[in-house]
TrEMBL record:
It comes from the Eukaryota. It holds the Pfam family DDE_3. It comes from Dendrothele bispora (strain CBS 962.96). GO terms for molecular function: nucleic acid binding. Residues 2-33 form the Tc1-like transposase DDE domain. This is Tc1-like transposase DDE domain-containing protein. InterPro entries: RNaseH_sf, Tc1-like_DDE_dom.
């Protein structure tokens, strides 16, 4: 058995928080598109809008976030 200490917790170093931050930044940058999707009656597709935000999280970004957090050296 080996004792392994995890890095100290900080929301700034949590990879999930950084992914959510990336999605929120995309939503803010595309505010007009988001508001148009949410206020449209017949053509409203909020799921498609959210998927566009989710796809801002790439494997390269995720790898960088895990390295930044100290989980990968």
């Amino acid at each position: 058995m080996r004792l392994l200490y995890l890095p100290t917790y900080s929301p700034h170093l949590n990879p999930c928080e950084e992914a959510f931050s990336s999605m929120k930044a995309w939503l803010s940058a595309n505010r007009n598109f988001v508001l148009g999707e949410l206020t449209g009656e017949a053509t409203c597709d909020p799921y498609a809008m959210l998927w566009d935000g989710i796809f801002t999280v790439t494997t390269d970004k995720a790898y960088g976030w895990f390295r930044h957090s100290g989980y990968i050296h």
